[in-house]
Amino acid sequence: xxxxxxxxxxxxxxxxxxxxxxxxxxxxxxxxxxxxxxxxxxxxxxxxxxxxxxxxxxxxxxxxxxxxxxxxxxxxxxxxxxxxxxxxxxxxxxxxxxxxxxxxxxxxxxxxxxxxxxxxxxxxxxxxxxxxxxxxxxxxxxxxxxxxxxxxxxxxxxxxxxxxxxxxxxxxxxxx
Length: 176
What we know:
Layout: H1 3-18, H2 35-47, H3 67-79, H4 86-97, H5 103-113, E1 140-147, E2 157-164, E3 170-175
Antiparallel strand pairs: 1-2, 2-3
């Protein structure tokens, strides 16, 4: 029962304590209740404070899957489809057993039944940077790119680039 419902029960109960209610919809303050409040008051008199809660409270939601269907899915997975992933299992349910259920619903159901383990994606290990070389020219990395550098008008040239590891200085050469 929510705080709001408890407060409503308290206000209805105040009139009962005084004995002012004659069952005709009149309240402790001496006026007739509007139709909505009269119905709530009648439920309060019949069932007490619990009558003020919403009638659908505590029940299942509109999208709740029937217990028989949940049990059937778990039974099928245990028997015939052990080891299938939720997506493939959901497709098999629809194709062969005519049970149309989203793969996320299947996954949640299998996890709840203890038939599927939740696995987190592993983070990629960070590759540590190596220390730069201490002196200029100690390690030079070189790469070449054969390309039509001057569009279609010229011949194919090769651009050679060399990068010194210690200083990061780039040296390049364009040749045929």
